[in-house]
Write a structure and sequence with these properties.
130 residues, alpha+beta, three-stranded mixed beta sheet, 3 strands
């Protein structure tokens, strides 16, 4: 996955969290970077593939940011299934909680229209008028 998407791991994390970013240098070259747990089990594989997913789908391809999170998670789950990796209930729960958090954050920051793909992740008690 790293070679396929030209991604470099800046740091292997011990926690089940990750981050993806890219750096463009003065000469125009770009570095695609992630920090992630080393994929050893279903959860760490899901987080790792989620971070790879940000690069695979392309930064800024989807707006708002919470929609990019959705597609990065979608990439992760689909890639796990394609590779025959075990997508556990905990992985699905983590995806759901992550997207619920990202959507709540976007709504707090003034998101006007919730993308259709994110409607199942509306936090409890929040009603939106699309």
């Amino acid at each position: 996955m790293l070679a396929e998407h030209s991604v470099r791991v800046r740091k292997w994390r011990s926690a089940m969290s990750g981050v993806a970013w890219q750096v463009t240098y003065k000469d125009g070259t770009m570095a695609k970077l992630i920090e992630s747990p080393k994929p050893r089990g279903p959860m760490s594989a899901a987080v790792f593939l989620h971070e790879i997913g940000h690069h695979a789908i392309g930064f800024g391809t989807y707006k708002p940011r919470c929609l990019e999170e959705y597609y990065a998670w979608k990439f992760s789950i689909e890639k796990m299934e394609e590779l025959g990796l075990n997508v556990t209930d905990r992985v699905h729960k983590r995806m759901h909680e992550s997207l619920e958090y990202a959507l709540a954050k976007a709504l707090r920051r003034g998101l006007k229209k919730v993308p259709e793909e994110l409607m199942p992740y509306l936090p409890a008690g929040i009603v939106v008028q699309n």
